[in-house]
Amino acid sequence: MIFALMVLALVGAALVLVAQSSGSMTFQTRRMTYEARVRDLQASARAWAATHPGRRGPTALDTDALGIPSGGLKVTIAADGEVRVEATCVLRGRPVTRRRAFRPPRRP
What we know:
By secondary structure, the chain is of the alpha+beta class. The chain has one domain (2-102). It has one helix and four strands; from the N terminus they run αββββ. The protein has a four-stranded antiparallel beta sheet, covered by helices on one side.
């Protein structure tokens, strides 16, 4: 009888550890998915800016084709050639916006 109670306690402790680690893995997976989506949006903005160098002012790009639900992408090409990217993704039900600026490479 004591052996059965000890095994039951050990199984319960193991289940608690598994539940905690799965919660941590879920959080890490969501965070990594969000970061990958932001990188994809920023790469798309760079590619768009490279193919549209003469466009000035802000331009909102469609994110539906990238499979990013409730995402947004705004690209602004300044007069001096600087490209500003504003990428918006949803993380845990809240929209999070990341901004980044870069200069496109010079064409030979």
